[in-house]
Request: fold
Amino acid sequence: MPLFDPLLIAILAPLALALAIACGLPKRWSVRLAYVAFAIPALMALHTWWHFSAQTQDHGYAFVSRYSTGLETLGISLHLGLNGISLPLFVLAGLVGFAAGLYALQSGAERLKIYLMLLLIMQGGLMGVFASIDVFFFYFFHELALIPTFIMIGVWGGRDRSYAAMKVTIYLTLGAMISLVGLIALYVKSGANTFDFIALRAHLAAHPLAETVQSNIAGLLLLGLGILVSLWPLHTWAPIGYGAAPSSAAMLHAGVLKKFGLYGLIQIAAPLLPAGLAHWSHWLAWLAVVGNVLVVGLITIAQRDLKQMLGYSSVMHMGYAFLGIASASVLGTGGVVLLMVAHGLSIALLFLLATSIHHRTHTFALDEMGGLAQKTPVLAAFFVAATLASIGLPGFANFWGELTIFVALWKFSPLITALAVAGVVISAIYGLRSAARVFFGPPTAQLAQVTAAHPPTDLRWNEKIPALILLAALFFVGFWPKSITTALNAALTAPAPVASVAAKSAALPR
Amino acid sequence: MNLEAVKLAAADNLWGALFPEMMIAGLALLLLVIELVLPKKEHAVIPDIALVGIFGTLAGLLLNFNSATLDTDSFNHLIHHSMGGQVMRAFFLLAALFVCALARVNLARRPVPRVEFYHIVLVITAAMMLLVQSNHFVMLFVALETVTIGFYILVSYFRTSGASLEAGLKYLVMGALGSGMLLFGIVLLYGVAGNPALRSYTADSMQFGPLAVFLAANPHQFLASVGIVLVLAGVAFKIGAFPFQIWIPDVYQGAPTPVTAFLAVGSKAAGFAVLLALAGKDGVFNSYAWLVTPVLTLMAAATIIFGNLAALTQHNVKRLIGLSGVSHAGFLLLGVIAASRVPMATGAVYFYLFAYLLASFAVFGVMTHLAGADDSDQELDHYAGLAKENPFLAAILAIGLGSLAGIPPLAGFMGKLFVFIAAFQAGARWLLVIAAAGVVISIYYYFGWIKAAFFETWTPPADTAGAPARPVRTPVAFAAGAALVVLALGSLALGFFPGPFGQLLTLR
Reply:
């Protein structure tokens, strides 16, 4: 057990402060310490990213540590570590969490202490999801991060918050329960009597599951995790939930927590159940391209509410991620991880900016805005940059993610690729249109009234810093994707080659 | 004087092994004596004596937990000492402790006799502890009737309240029916197993061991099958499994809140311990698995579906928690079904019961503080705005309900996980699907309760002329607050670090 365990520190620091706040830490200290507690996971994440290649690797994992929770008889223990797939997401969680925390600290929300406490619990859970090697704790930390989301939507949410909280809770619990049944099935059927991913992988490599068993379990996991990632037609919770969620909760959920499902499919399902995923890949690809990309894309164009639009656009972009998984190739899967990081950063930035716009216009309705760029040029610049990133302009991380997915997808099915590329046009339409509606053109009468009563100021520094963190990361990955892909490539090819999945899927009768 | 006989009795009957039951029963009698002896103004000390006595017994039990008498029979095979029995004894003592703590808050505001309440609770506790260790149908029936008759009195303890009396009558009628079915089943088994025309017949067919041998030798005997189904039905009354759950909403609503808690936790757990002895690992009915497993499977599926759907529409929290308890009985049945085939299932059921105890008493503790003069009038609306007025109680409520709903990182989630794993290992796939659906449905009503406490604000209705719109809340005393904190921390600790309790899973 190492003396300095950056992963455990990143998980425990936010949780410890949350506990202290629950025990009645005074507000002044809660706020001050919250800066530290949000910064620690981000710093630890950067530390692991910087030192990753120098670390000794244990079955492809670095920074490995193991703690007992007394459930060894069931093969459960807190086994932490990072590999090339989880490292970028761990860093994503740290950065988005830091930005969301900073944004929450300046938001002046009602009952700020409790708000911060819930956000800290979420942050601790998120760090845990991507740091866990043990499949049980992978699920456990996800749920830990999920519960505060419900409460934050219900208490601090906007319009229809009660309804939105209920809907999100029921949908996501359903998804989580189905995934849990899938994971239990995997645990029991593997016969390895362990939830430890490394041991499971080794056991299943020696005794692979029968194909029907694999496809049944993969079906459960796809359905359960699909609900959590808003796979069409089970996506309806997302726009309503994000529309009502307070900004920091939306940033963390849409930016990071939602990636749990994709991460589970790539990290756990792809190496353990290759034939199972291959069995469903055509279903998945068609659902994703027709449902998520085209149908939801068109719905997004029709949105009149900025936050709802962002919610729908995030559903749409998840379609690309599913397509990458369906392609079942190293290139496509790597592209999904890149896209997850890029989308997480850009959607978090967009939700942040949307709330900043709302502070200035007092509305989310796109029809009631216009011409804000004259008064708030910096805000406009940020928003346009974030929009361009989410469309997938070269120079931003999103570009590499989408590009590699399309290239990988061509081998899988040229028709689907063509449809998916058409989706990029759709996202350009709604992205640019929303930027134009909000910032350019003449201001509407309602907006003129509001701005006359409260003259809008440009982005303040405490809003700029979190936005800058996210934008800088987008640029960084956009210009130097190798910072992520070296380790990612190693993880996807070395221990359990995903390439064999493609070979297997080609061999399967259709 | 034949000293040898006395010595033999002392060596054979192992009275010492029953010291917790004797302590508790003695304590029950002691309370009555103290009431006679002490002057009236000193009577307030009696509940404290009960609490200290129970606590002492629990400590004594835990100190002698791994005593040498394990896995032996005593009293002519009436009692079987096992690790499971030890665990359940500790469970009932813990439950009695919290029931007495609840009663201290709940009875304080009502003009009812105090001492008898604690007396009966203690007698029931001792009987439950004997019940889970019984190895003989006579022992089982006597202990079970002691429990049930005690509850007849406790349910209608508020004798000036119509709801309480109605609940008592309903419980009496339904309980008698349940006891009748159980007894009829026992008699059938006794008769058929004593029939010299059948293989392996036995003169001592009330005792579990010979009966199991007889059943194994005659695995498709018709009368024995009828007897087994009737015995299971009798036990199903106690745990509130479908179709014998019909008494639950009314009785839970009418009974005083501490009694509701005792029924929900203690009585249900006793039923499950008996069920484990009959149908679990090395159970008496194991050679009739062809019959018992489908019956229990159907029962579990129907119980989960009924409990969750019926709880959806409830506005009275006592009815709500009663019906949610029905669904918990269904989840526990999953574990019982798996127990005859999967080694870890027995431990999973015990773990689930402990998680259920911690969560339920946390919720009942909050309910007690919110209840007014009319104990049966506890509506969801009364919880509106609780988070603002009393954040402490709201937090305890959220932890308790979260654990009942099975949300990580609370104990209830671990319990559900273990039971689900056991059920999957036993091959009960469809049941698992139903259970997972049940969990999702249950989120709706548990979350609705939390929503009332956290998201809604209280607005007094305009048309109530003069009458108070909702009951006045009881301020949280230090001791009660400490007990609630212990319960909440227990739920959290079992969720985060199941550690020592993980050992329960290795129980065989």
Q: What stands out?
A: Residues 330-361 of chain A form the longest helix (32 residues).
